[in-house]
What does this fold into?
Amino acid sequence: MDFTLSKEQQDIIKAAREFARKEFRDVALEFDRNETFDLNLLKKACELGFVGVFIDEKYEGAGYGFLEHCLITEEFWAVDPGIGQAIGSATFGAEILLLFGSEEQKKDILPQLVSGQAILSTAITEPDAGSDVSGACTTAVKQGEYWVLNGSKMFITNGDLADYLIVYVLTDPDHPSRHNRHSFILVPRVTPGFQSNKLRGKLGIRASDTAELSFSDVKVPVDNLIGKEGQGFHQLMAFFNRTRLHICAQGVGLARGALEESINYTKKRRQFGAPLASFQVTQFKLAEMATKIRAARNLYYEAAWSVDHGHIDHALIAMAKWFSGEMAVRCADEALQMHGGYGFMDEYKVQRLYRDSKILELYEGTKEMEKTIVARSILGM
It folds into this structure.
């Protein structure tokens, strides 16, 4: 059993860390306060090969695995989660195209994502269908050579930016199985009848675009169906088994950022005539944070390695996802506690980390849903 990363993987980590520290730090607070993001930063990341590294070389990607994708994500989130999410999510949905898209769809869209010429979004969540994805009711009705979409989506990453959207729609509402009623359909932003509204006032990851979407008689060609009709739910589960690894790395990166900030602060901050780091209570907090981060990283390394080697372990992925998210929230909380009143001010990074952390327990499967997956697996249900 070898836990050592390859020289190439170590180089990827080093390059990602240097890029994030150089490019993110001076603009992170501005992006958070204004809920904005400079797309030129995304283009820089694309030029340096940090975007869509899991995309095959024949579609102009780097041809790496999801582990390498996660290594980059961890480094970006350790510096700033908001910017890390804005860059990392630019290919959100490429996994679906790689797994189920037609060759024409892949050749058309994937190279645009790698080069930064286009941004992708996957629209799943609805106002009344979050964890219950089989209850999504945005419809797509086949009329001649077109699909006609009607409905709405909520909390969609890149919804107000994306050039293309992969939309989860109800295509066979009368099918006896709830898991065979939905499909994914590709919708270009410029399609008439599509509208997006940027959501503001988010708790965290404010540099990342989030929007509500509406579809009013949106017509797209029948060839825009991704994979087979009625297989959307199964495609979505395969998608989550890969993107949840990305969330694991986000959690580890954020927690690592919280630990790094805490170490620096407690070494400098003095109380009762001594540095905070000299007190056992502080040392125990730091030790616990470091241990939880290591445990979460090992979980996602194993899960990502397994996926890259063709083995999908649903329970392991769910364990890694809920543990890393919960761990990140706790580490951010401890970091703010150690910073005291200073941590309550937005000039200090830990305040952002504290706000950014909560989403990790919510999106792409709440921690309750992940624990349910684990429980059912060990119970054989």
DSSP finds twelve helices and ten strands in the chain.
